[in-house]
Design goal:
With about 90 residues, this protein is α+β, with helices and mostly antiparallel strands. Helices cover about 15% and strands about 10% of the residues. A two-stranded antiparallel ribbon has the order 1-2.
């Protein structure tokens, strides 16, 4: 049977935070609780931007709610993908 006890391990010594177990000899399972890492200067983080040589290859959309493609472009893309999956060589052009 397993029973949990809280303790602090400090340089080879165990300091019990609650009442210690009432046994003289026992096997222990140790789980180490580490503090969560914090982001240093999280409030100063800046949005990363790509290098200038990639600017022409990336589309920027300022309005997050605005669709990236028109309905016609979306349908054409789906048809082209379906043709590629079917093995149509014209769909790869």
């Amino acid at each position: 049977m397993l029973k949990s006890y809280e303790a602090i391990y400090d340089h080879g010594h165990i300091q019990w935070l609650s009442e210690p177990p009432k046994v003289e000899h026992f096997k222990m399972l140790v789980v180490i609780e580490q503090p969560e890492p914090t982001l240093v200067n999280e409030h100063k983080r800046k949005r990363r931007t790509p290098p200038p040589e990639l600017k022409s290859s990336i589309n920027y959309f300022d309005d997050a709610l605005k669709p990236a493609f028109s309905e016609a472009e979306w349908e054409a893309s789906l048809e082209r993908t379906a043709g590629q999956c079917a093995g149509d060589p014209e769909a790869f052009k």
